[in-house]
Design a protein that fits this description.
The chain is of the alpha/beta class. The chain folds into two domains: 103 residues, no CATH class; 118 residues, 2-Layer Sandwich (Zincin-like), CATH 3.30.2010.10. It is 37% helix and 14% strand. The chain is built from nine helices and nine strands. It has a four-stranded mixed beta sheet. Strands 5-7-6 form a three-stranded mixed beta sheet, covered by helices on one side. It is elongated, with a radius of gyration of 20 Å. The N terminus is likely disordered.
Length: 284
């Protein structure tokens, strides 16, 4: 069954109350991860990433163009644009760590300057005139809202035999993100391991689902809580950092992302544990 599209414009815009800016973190020395660790945390394998990047090149160029144009209208902080095909919320705005995350329907890819100016004004002041202009723009472009198949229900599983993902997520969200991360979290499918595997994807973040998945091999008594927290923290960072396409390939871990990684309190300890102990996880 497909969800009917509401014609009422009042629900098309959504702004989350800005969270207070967290105190600035002290400068941290960036520690480079080895190639094996980097690969373990990739969202997709190389072949899939290349194919997806080629198909998304035009959309990415439009996204970056809108993001660049919006910067001129924000008086404080920087905008981060995420295009969506959402059926009901055409514009969702959230502020955290000096970043305005704007989840915008792709109809905004060709928005004129007056509309983008209204986006910035609505984000920063929730101005009624700006909201009215945005609703008119959305109504005028509602033909671009494409029906979608009913998504599969996602079972959220946070309580493991040894670790509770939600408790760790909530602690990290409060400590490092001032509560700004809205993604859900779950253990991944608990399936049999692939025989002879040489690497393992310990975590992933889905932009469209706003969902973090953690590999269930980490739900073990010999996996220290700080290492699980490090994997979760890494995936949470993907919600607030861009993943641009550079030379036809998507870059998941930009220099800014790496600097944010290094702010994790037990960063070096987590990297060392992975390098010396992750081989045990491959056999489970």
């Amino acid at each position: 069954m497909k969800s009917p599209r509401s014609t009422a414009p009042a629900a098309l815009l959504r702004v989350l109350d800005p969270s207070p800016e967290p105190p600035s973190s002290p400068a941290a020395t960036e520690v480079e991860l080895d190639a094996e660790f980097d690969a373990d945390l990739e969202l997709e394998d190389d072949v899939e990433a290349e194919a997806e990047a080629e198909g998304e090149a035009d959309v990415e160029a439009q996204r970056l163009a809108v993001q660049t144009r919006l910067r001129a209208y924000f008086t404080k902080g920087r905008p981060r644009v995420v295009f969506t095909d959402n059926l009901h919320t055409m514009l969702s705005i959230k502020r955290g760590q000096g970043v305005w995350t704007l989840r915008m329907h792709q109809m905004f890819a060709t928005a004129p300057p007056a509309v983008l100016r209204a986006v910035a004004q609505y984000a920063q002041t929730q101005d009624r005139q700006a909201a009215a202009l945005l609703r008119r723009y959305i109504d005028h472009n509602d033909h671009q809202i494409r029906p979608q198949a009913e998504p599969r229900a996602q079972v959220i599983d946070v309580q493991g035999a040894h670790h509770n993902l939600q408790a760790t997520f909530d602690e990290l969200n409060a400590r490092y993100f001032a509560g700004a991360i809205t993604a859900r979290i779950t253990w991944g499918p608990r399936t049999r391991r692939r025989s002879g595997r040489e690497s393992i994807k310990l975590g992933s973040y889905s932009v469209e689902e706003e969902l973090i998945r953690i590999h269930p091999v980490l739900d073990a008594s010999d996996v220290p809580p700080f290492f699980l927290a490090w994997i979760i923290y890494h995936e949470m960072l993907h919600e607030v950092h861009d993943m641009p396409i550079v030379d036809g390939r998507r870059v998941y871990h930009t220099p800014e992302f790496r600097r944010a990684e290094a702010r994790f309190e037990r960063y070096a300890e987590a990297v060392l544990w992975e390098r010396t102990q992750v081989h045990k996880l491959l056999d489970r």
